[in-house]
Amino acid sequence: MDSKILMTVFLSFVPVLLLLSSTEAHVEYGAYNKTCPRAEQVVYEEMANILATSPDLAGALLRLHYVDCFVRGCEASILLNSTADNKAEKDAELNKDVRGYEVIDRIKAKLDEACPGIVSCADIIALAARDSIRLSNGPNIPIGTGRRDGNGSSASDVPLNLPSASANITLLLSLFAKYNLTAKDLVVLSGAHTIGKAHCYSFSDRLYNYNGNGSSDPRLDANYQTVLKQQCAPNDMTRLVGLDANNATAFDLGYYSGLSQKKGLLTSDVALLDDATTNAYVLLQANNTSTDQFFADFAMSLMSMGKIGALTHGKGEIRKQCSVLNPAPPPSPPPSPKSASPEMRSAFSSVLSASVVLSYFFIQFY
Ligand code: HEM
Ligand SMILES: *[C@@H]1O[C@H](CO)[C@@H](O)[C@H](O)[C@H]1NC(C)=O
Ligand SMILES: *[C@@H]1O[C@H](CO)[C@@H](O)[C@H](O)[C@H]1NC(C)=O
Ligand SMILES: *[C@@H]1O[C@H](CO)[C@@H](O)[C@H](O)[C@H]1NC(C)=O
Ligand SMILES: *[C@@H]1O[C@H](CO)[C@@H](O)[C@H](O)[C@H]1NC(C)=O
Ligand SMILES: *[C@@H]1O[C@H](CO)[C@@H](O)[C@H](O)[C@H]1NC(C)=O
Ligand SMILES: *[C@@H]1O[C@H](CO)[C@@H](O)[C@H](O)[C@H]1NC(C)=O
Ligand SMILES: *[C@@H]1O[C@H](CO)[C@@H](O)[C@H](O)[C@H]1NC(C)=O
Ligand SMILES: *[C@@H]1O[C@H](CO)[C@@H](O)[C@H](O)[C@H]1NC(C)=O
Ligand SMILES: *[C@@H]1O[C@H](CO)[C@@H](O)[C@H](O)[C@H]1NC(C)=O
């Protein structure tokens, strides 16, 4: 056979292959390039407006992405309201301090002016988290989009997946490992606590009742303990304290230097000193003059976290309102032959790949 013909056959497959691979399920850079080219810009502008008047919300929005991803995946289950017969994640005890929901609704409204019904609530959360970091003097992290919104939310999933403020290192490592996140991911992502605040009750056991007998945590610097006691009376239910004793508004290395100086706020922060890998990372960053490595590491780990359980293409929906599921569609007609299922596409793709390899060998032989 003429190798030119084979080459032509081969080349004619290339666009088909590219098309098929672009419809495979994944979180990718610029998923809205064509459908909503200004999406990321719209989110950034709205976040800049919101944080200019409420800088405290930067931490809240970054945390929202984490609590979303760790329970059912990054599919906006955290945003769903409870209903008469279902208690949703946001009403779980561990999530009672999660805030910033109204920010998501504001951004959603802006996006619906620019391109109605295109951008998912899960992507709004991820983009808002990314912009919170950038607007706190942190890195501008490129993140993938294309997540779609999930179809449920259950408060009972929360304690199985989210560690509490008093979690030890064993529990932290095992909860992260469930999502293939390593000890390094744990110590890097905990670095998010370089911004944002915690309620007094999230750590007051360390001040007033550490061993259940009225003593305080020996792993808390004595001067810092005095400062914290001034801010937090024993049963304070409302006050907020910066998680990073050095500077809770800047995305910097202050969280790690604080930890190395016994100024970690939560028991779960201090726990990072109890594992060789996480301890070494804390000490490496504690006195560092450059944020380069932390920023690069954070970008990598955030990307891994942002892929957990993401629903792409065929799965999930684009919610009309982030706090409620779309109304159920009318019963669907039998599947149309035109729209190939992901399984069919992948089978077709394998056949094509095999034929490309075969063509290549033919070209070699003739
Ligand atoms: C390692 C396990 C983690 C634990 C046990 C934990 C626990 C907590 C707790 C107890 C608070 C304070 C809540 C309050 O009292 O209002 C908090 C706040 C926060 N968390 Fe975490 N967290 C963890 C990991 C993460 C991760 C991976 C991220 C993001 C990548 C994150 C981002 C934040 C932020 C930004 C805040 C401040 C929230 C605000 O200002 O409203 N956390 N976290
Ligand atoms: C969107 O555009 C950016 C910048 O040109 C590019 O890096 C990215 O791959 C594009 N994504 C898609 C899905 O087209
Ligand atoms: C969801 O709950 C919040 C807070 O209770 C409420 O403000 C919001 O209107 C609810 N969303 C819908 C669509 O009802
Ligand atoms: C860590 O916490 C878990 C869950 O609370 C507990 O079962 C375990 O005994 C603790 N491990 C250590 C070493 O304290
Ligand atoms: C974690 O990695 C294992 C092995 O590579 C894989 O089988 C599993 O699906 C992954 N789990 C998640 C949650 O990504
Ligand atoms: C509380 O318990 C710890 C550990 O068991 C002990 O070291 C400490 O002395 C006790 N403190 C008081 C005030 O009894
Ligand atoms: C914290 O960092 C921000 C941003 O770099 C800076 O503007 C602010 O002055 C710092 N605050 C303190 C108390 O150092
Ligand atoms: C950081 O520098 C201070 C002052 O030089 C020093 O006391 C401390 O041990 C250093 N910490 C680390 C983790 O290297
Ligand atoms: C600072 O971090 C770099 C990597 O960014 C590392 O090679 C270096 O050892 C660290 N410096 C100090 C003083 O810890
Ligand atoms: C909810 O979504 C999951 C994941 O896409 C899917 O497997 C399941 O069938 C859906 N359930 C309902 C009731 O739509």
From TrEMBL:
InterPro entries named in the record: Haem_peroxidase, Haem_peroxidase_sf, Peroxidase_pln, Peroxidases_heam-ligand_BS, Secretory_peroxidase
Binding residues annotated for Ca(2+) 1, in chain numbering: 68, 71, 73, 77, 89
UniProt KW keywords: Calcium, Disulfide bond, Heme, Hydrogen peroxide, Iron, Metal-binding, Oxidoreductase, Peroxidase, Secreted, Signal
Predominant subcellular localization, coarse grouping: secreted
Subcellular location: Secreted
Cofactor: Ca(2+); heme b
Family per similarity comment: Belongs to the peroxidase family. Classical plant (class III) peroxidase subfamily.
Protein name per Swiss-Prot or TrEMBL: Peroxidase
Species name: Carex littledalei
